[in-house]
Amino acid sequence: MTRIVVYDDNKLRRESLEALFSFSTDLQYIGGFEHCNDPIEQLRELQPDLILMDIEMPGTDGITGVRIIKEKFPAIKVIIQTVFDDDDKVFAALQAGAEGYILKNASVQQITGAIDDVMKGGAGMSPSIALKVMRYFKDETVNTNYNLTTKETEVLKLLVKGLSYKMIADQLGISYFTVNNHVKKVYEKLHVHSMGEALARAHKDRLV
Q1: Which domains can be identified in the chain, with CATH numbers?
Q2: CB–CB of 72/14 below 8 Å?
Q3: Torsions phi, psi of 59, nearest 5?
Q4: Which uninterrupted H or E stretch holds 28?
């Protein structure tokens, strides 16, 4: 039985999903909330297996909510469910740690199918979202240079070796502040949001 929590400021939407899951022998609706301003205590108490997360909510938006949740509860699966299908929101959500991204006009079969895919270790996506992701990675494969400067590449190499910002500053003869600025530029150019993602991208695309 997959235990599900829903974050959505639309009460009717939450009630519709609760009704949908009530007909399933595999899915259980265990709670719903109109915002994601304080998810830690809620999730600690409910202990869901999966969250359906809206993006536009009062206070904390859904993408920020995913980051907060993944930091504290990395094992909980998250599927974004929203009306937005623009590239920025799709990739921001996936980079934040969401395992799936489906549109609110998805059919019942698509919703339950996405949940099943994610719980089995896959990625649950609406067809149009999956196409965006495929195009994105195709483009990334074509151009893996990322236009890193010589200094940014040097900093990335030293990060891969496990050096701290201070150690990098000492080795390159630059300030800690300058190292921090180089790292921010590396994140921007590699389209990542964490050190782990940056190092994974460096290894994957053989940047160093």
Answers
A1: 2-139 (3.40.50.2300), 150-204 (1.10.10.10)
A2: no
A3: 80, -125
A4: strand 27-33
pLDDT 10s digits, 19-29: 999 999 999 99
Quick one: tokens of 68?
């907060």
Place of tokens 């536009």: 56
d(CA 38, CA 198): 29
Please tell me the pTM assigned to this model: 0.65
Coil, helix or strand at residue 59:
coil
pLDDT tens digits, 115-159:
999 998 887 887 777 776 666 655 555 445 688 899 999 999 998
Which residues sit opposite 80 in a β-bridge?
53, 101
Q: With residue 102 as reference, give the H or E element that holds it.
A: strand 100-103
Residue 99 DSSP label: S
Return the amino acid letter for 175: S
